[in-house]
## 1
Amino acid sequence: MPPIALWFAQANQFFNAQLSTHFRSLDEGGLLPALWVLGIAFVYGVLHAIGPGHGKALVAGYFLANDGKKKDVFKIGFLIALVHASSALILTIVAYYILEKTASKILREMGGTLTQVTGGLIVLIGIWLIYEIIASKMTSPNQNGKKVQKLSVVLLAGIIPCPGVMTIAFFAITIGHILLGVFAALAMSIGMGVTISVAGLFANKFQQSSFLKRHFKWLMIVRMIGAFIVIGLGILLLMTPSVTKPF
């Protein structure tokens, strides 16, 4: 295992252990353990999203290929994190209360298929971006098309359930603190949203740099690179669904 991957694996173990400790302290009473759970979940979300994964690459590629406002970056970044956490939370609750042990096996088997479907759709988004880049030389951008693109990026980057949130939610349910588990999942999604938005901001700032504004040819090249990053990401998910992770 590469050193960076080992470091992230150890970090995940550390945060899971810390969350477990403070969740168990809740029965002793007091507000402090609950605050610790929320704080740790937020930091866990920030670090969880820093590791290698397709979410940041998709957002960065999208904002290299598209001009956009900073508020769009934050909106997409936090919506992706919210969808990522919510899908995990819903699946965990359904698995625990309805399907129990069988659900875990089904979800593991479906994970690779879901990743490949997502990869195929991401390739289509990349092709759509290339079409719009070429079309933008002749016509003004279609705002309705932009809205659909943004929604597609949010859903495709966030739809694969977050394993960290699933761990938190499952543990919260088993010890009878599901409400705090929901808030912890929300705190983790906010942390992930911060990291994803920062990745998008770097791409957005580069795409809007004064150099690119002065040199239209290079701006088109950068936009095309962004689109091909998105396509390459989709192909990677199609070919290696079992070794990629959402963020």
## 2
Amino acid sequence: MLEVGYIDIWIDEIVPCLKDSETGEEHETVVFKVESRSYLKKFREDNGWHIDWKRMPLDVEVYALALKDDNSIQGLIGIRDDKGSNAVYLHWACTAPHNNIHDSGKQKYSGVGGHLFAVAAEKSIEWGHEGAMHGFADNQELLEHYIAAFGAEYLGMLHQYQFFIDEINARNILEVYTYEWNIA
């Protein structure tokens, strides 16, 4: 099981929709909750998704960000309602391999990382935490990146790279990124 998760996505561009890196064309997105763990079996570490998503702890909800026109998944985020800290816990987030310039050297769509944070912020509001969220950055560089990109605060209590995004900064994230919920 992946009991402790890490956030290792980059906020590459602040754009309301996903942006095609070659053409500059913006594409509308949809978000949906992944209800079936067996659906996640195709999102594996060995094919570029950083972890085997089907092994996500059962108390972590997984959401997919997809293109509206063809439902192709561009990123995944796993979050948990952390009632003890009155915030959403960002368990794991990952862009699709073709969007991860740090792994593949190229990127089909920019804006995925920010959209995933927006999904977490919206769920935090829905769960009564007013947008507050926390997680563990994968390293110091990413921690500093989240501080610069989203006004995150360094916590370092439970993990050396623990960060917190407060309600005000979460709402700022939601003001930028747009998507629709695809309710099945």
